[in-house]
Amino acid sequence: MKQLTDELLNEFSQGSPHAFQTIFDSFRMRIFYFVKKLIDDRLIAEEITSDTFVKLYRLHDRFNTLNNIQAFLFITARNASLDYLKYRQRQRLNLAELQAHEEQEIDFPLFAETNIQADVLQFIYEEIEKLPQRSKTIFKLFYIEGVPVRDIANMMKISPQTVANQKHTALKLLRMKVLDRPGLLLWLLFLAGEKR
Q1: CA 18: distance to chain centroid?
Q2: Which domain holds residue 121?
Q3: Are 12 and 19 in contact (CB under 8 A)?
Q4: Which of 11, 26, 74, 169 could form a disulfide with 16 if both were Cys (CB 3.0 to 4.6 A apart)?
Q5: How many CA within 13 A on the CB side of residue 77?
Q6: Are residues 60 and 130 in the same domain?
Q7: What residue spans of the chain are helical by DSSP H?
Q8: Is the pLDDT of residue 33 over 60?
Q9: What is the pLDDT, as a whole number, of residue 108?
């Protein structure tokens, strides 16, 4: 391996890729282990090490001594590692806050995103199927397929007011079926408010 001579440093300061490769080979593992000791993550340590050398090469014309290069590499790698540790800490705090928020929040999922257990969901669908034909059709089009009231009215050749009345009737009938199931009742109340 070519020694880190004054001549090599001069070539590096002029942007020589060969001189950079020699410096890279000389310091890469030292920087890598230094970073890995700080953050204890091999993949991120490799990333930070690579980025550090990219920054060194971009600023090649600013270095004329080996000590300057070495100091730059270790300081840059240390700062990047500390930034990563701060970022990881923020991510953990954000995740903890999100989990705490989710635990406190009452979840009223829609059909496509439901967390209701399968037997409960089955119960709802069975009750929907028992609705009068017109109410059932309108309920499915509006609440499950997301078709707007005006489009339903055009499809069924009825007035928008009739569609509104029918979906109101369907919700009322479903509420009566689930009065003894508070969780489902809350879900239906949410559905009624969300989809007006």
Answers
A1: 41
A2: 111-194
A3: yes
A4: 11
A5: 29
A6: no
A7: 6-13, 17-39, 42-58, 66-104, 118-129, 133-139, 149-156, 160-177, 182-194
A8: yes
A9: 41
What CATH number is associated with residue 130?
A: 1.10.10.10
Answer whether residue 153 shows pLDDT above 60: yes
- The number of residues in the chain equals 196
- Which band of pLDDT confidence, cut at 50, 70 and 90, is reported for residue 120? low
Using CA atoms, how far apart are residues 83 and 1, in angstroms rounded to an integer? Answer: 34
The type of residue at 182 is: P
Kindly state the DSSP code that residue 30 receives in the 8-state scheme.
H
Q: Are 143 and 111 in contact (CB under 8 A)?
A: yes
R_g of the chain computed on alpha carbons:
33
Q: Which residue has the higher pLDDT, 28 or 188?
A: 28
8-37 average pLDDT score: 90
Task: Tell me: do 98 and 130 sit in the same domain.
Answer: no
**Cα 39 from chain centroid?**
23
Angstrom distance (rounded) from CA 64 to CA 10: 7
In angstroms, the Cα distances linking 155 to 55, 126, 133, 147, 151 are 63, 25, 15, 10, 6
Q: Which residue, chain included where needed, has tokens 């508070």?
A: 182
Amino acid at position 123, single letter: F
Q: Are residues 89 and 120 in the same domain?
A: no
Residue range 106-133: mean pLDDT, rounded: 59
CB atoms within 10 A of CB 113: 7
Cα–Cα distance for residue pair 67/120, rounded to 1 Å: 70
